[in-house]
Design brief:
Elements lengths: L4 H8 L9 E3 L7 E2 L5 E11 L10 H19 L2 E11 L4 H18 L3 E8 L3 E11 L14 E5 L4 H9 L9 H10 L5 H7 L5 E4 L4 H12 L2 E4 L8 H4 L4 H10 L6 E5 L9 E8 L3 E3 L4 H13 L3
Bound molecules: adenosine-5'-diphosphate and magnesium ion (MG).
Function: Catalyzes the ATP-dependent phosphorylation of thiamine-monophosphate (TMP) to form thiamine-pyrophosphate (TPP), the active form of vitamin B1.
Pathway: Cofactor biosynthesis; thiamine diphosphate biosynthesis; thiamine diphosphate from thiamine phosphate: step 1/1
Catalytic activity: thiamine phosphate + ATP = thiamine diphosphate + ADP
Amino acid sequence: MPDDEFSLIEQYFSGLDAGGSVELGVGDDCAILRLETGERLVTSVDTQVDGVHFPPGTPPQHVAFRAVSAAVSDLAAMGARPLGMTLAVTLPQADAAWLALFREGLAAAVSEYSLPLVGGDTTRGPLCLSVQVMGAVPVGKAIKRSGAQVGDTLCVSGYLGDGAGGLAVLEGRWQPGHPHAAYLEQRFYRPRARVALGRQLRDYATAAIDVSDGLLADIGHMAAASGVGVRLEPDSVPLSAALLSHDNKDTALRWALAGGDDYELCFCLPGGHEPPAGAACIGEVVAGEGVDCGDDIDIVSGYQHFSASAPR
Ligand code: ADP
Ligand code: MG
């Protein structure tokens, strides 16, 4: 970056570091975050590359918000309380108008998730963001991928496939009618990580994962980590009115099962627990391994090809 790297940091990346968890924010060699007694630190990092994770020309406020949401989604899946984040950002140039909008998106995310921006790194090069998130969970309470038990109910929050549908709209591959296009663009640009739901699930879910790679892939990861199989009912997977408006039902279902970028939570509940509000039951945990979707073999293989070629 130019000599004024420090004034750039001061102008665009400072002042978002206030919060109860912050003892020391931006400006020193490290930030200092507070944990409560009996808590553990959970941390994760997530990178977004221009043209790979979002289309070139994505408005900067959305680039920032989306990158934070993608990272926070991992905290949500563990049931963590957000503490703070750091942002390593590589910028092609110090464009003031672009940076002002970028900061707007960052500020919106800081506020949405109560997640202060406590540090980072700023360099020049092709646009790329790495968001490292830190959160806290009471000892022994983090929801892992590995806890699913045979007989559990498999649930998912929200609507699936909107991320892939939104990308199709943004790339001009699909023109849904009003108001679906605007809804889907928002779902792609401004995904909302399910932090409150994750914290609620901490008390009774046996396992959880956030849906970032595609529902089938992520259920597969959870099943493998737990040493179980999953029977999925594809028809039970919730689709938004926007996706249901698609002429081709197979395309909509493929986006929901394999699309990725939804940032919903997929989780397992022991028998007797109803899914919380806004979540749906989509299958069950069974003995064995892998994900069984009934007779929908085409969709599964379609997904595998899709996944192998997906630029992420
Ligand atoms: P150091 O050389 O010790 O790594 P830097 O000179 O890179 O520190 O950064 C100075 C301060 O500004 C540090 O507190 C750092 O965390 C913060 N900072 C740098 N870039 C960003 C950014 N993109 N977002 C938030 N804070 C940043
Ligand atoms: Mg230093």
